Amino acid sequence: MAELTTEINDVLAYLAPERGLKLELLRYGVSAYPDYGVPQEVVNRLMPNDFDVFVGIMWKRCGTPMAGQDSGTVEEYRRAVERRKKTGKPVIMFYFCDAPVPFPSHEDVEQLERVVKFREELQSKGLTQLYPSREKFREYVRGICCERFAT
Helix H segments across the chain? Predict the structure, then answer.
């Protein structure tokens, strides 16, 4: 993602230098640090909440259940939706990988069921994009971001 962010920033600077657009990658493993408290509450407290774009990505794992949500990613998505309802931001872009899933273990089946349920929820709201593989993800996101934000 860091390389993709750099690529998008380069294209945005080329296409619309007058707009001064720049993406900043926020990831809990980098943008948050270990602190006392419930893990997702720590992430929520430490991560900036004034972002303009939310990009979510899932394939075969939903993640670790957190405080009544299926995962930290699901909670972060829901927080972004609530903020959008109040302020009109962020743009919410959620991607699901459509690559075949290897034969799963029992845990993998549970994870995949949660992904499918979440994907169906988002698709009913028109908020998703499928991409065929990890390799193709760059092309999808780079093209959409550059087209959407540079014009």
Answer: 2-15, 28-31, 39-46, 72-87, 106-123, 134-150
Contact 59, 104 (CB under 8 A): no
- Which residues form the domain of 95? 2-150
Alpha-carbon span 43 to 27, nearest angstrom: 9
Per-residue model confidence as pLDDT tens digits over 20-30: 888 888 777 77
Mean pLDDT score across all residues of the chain: 86
CA angle 59, 65, 29 (to 5 degrees): 70
Number of folded domains that form the chain:
1
Whole-number Å distance between alpha carbons of 103 and 134: 18
